[in-house]
Amino acid sequence: MSAEVAQKVTAKNDNIPSQTLVTSSIVVPASSTARRSSRYDEDNHLKRRASEDEDANRDPEENKRPRLDMNNTELKKRSQRMFGLMMGTLTKFKNDIQNKTEARECWSKQKKNLANFLCTKTSPPLYYLPAKLSSTSLETIAEQKRQLALASSASAQVDDNNVSEEKEAHTMDVEMEDT
């Protein structure tokens, strides 16, 4: 009888398709390898860091994002709105710079006109022009014109630097808004 059972079991096993054993991929380290694993983690971290640096140095065409579908009406409206906001910001900054330069030009023109008059030393200064100019008053007017010329040339250099710095700052602001 045991032979019959053995034959039946063997027959059943023959009918079952062979199954492959899958071994576990989890490895439990021994306690003696703790130092080795910490070194391995450091080396692995350095390798990962090096591979990230290589990714950054790769061709930028590989890292490009896919194009947006411009057939989407919501996306189209959003992009038009963003473009309008950017253009409005640029126009505002352009107008601000233009207004400042016009104000400076007007101020310098007024200073040039006032340099032809005598100025009192009191506060507030009073500008006047006597009917007959003496030699001292002519010298004073000439000195005022020289000082104005020196001040205007120095302020022109400072103004040029300020305008270029303002333009750079505004372009940086716009670039920051883009990101």
From TrEMBL:
Alphabetized UniProt keyword annotations: mRNA processing, mRNA splicing, Nucleus, Transcription, Transcription regulation
Keyword flag Transcription: yes
Keyword Transcription appears in the UniProt entry: yes
Annotated GO CC locations: catalytic step 2 spliceosome
Higher taxonomy: Eukaryota, Fungi, Fungi incertae sedis, Mucoromycota, Glomeromycotina
One GO BP annotation of this record: mRNA processing
Protein known as: 6812_t:CDS:1
Start and end residues of each stretch annotated as Disordered: 28-72, 152-179
InterPro entries listed in its UniProt record: Pinin, Pinin_SDK_MemA
Biased composition (Basic and acidic residues): 38-68, 164-173
Subcellular location(s) of the protein: Nucleus
Domain of life where this protein originates: Eukaryota
Location of the Pinin/SDK/MemA protein domain: 101-145
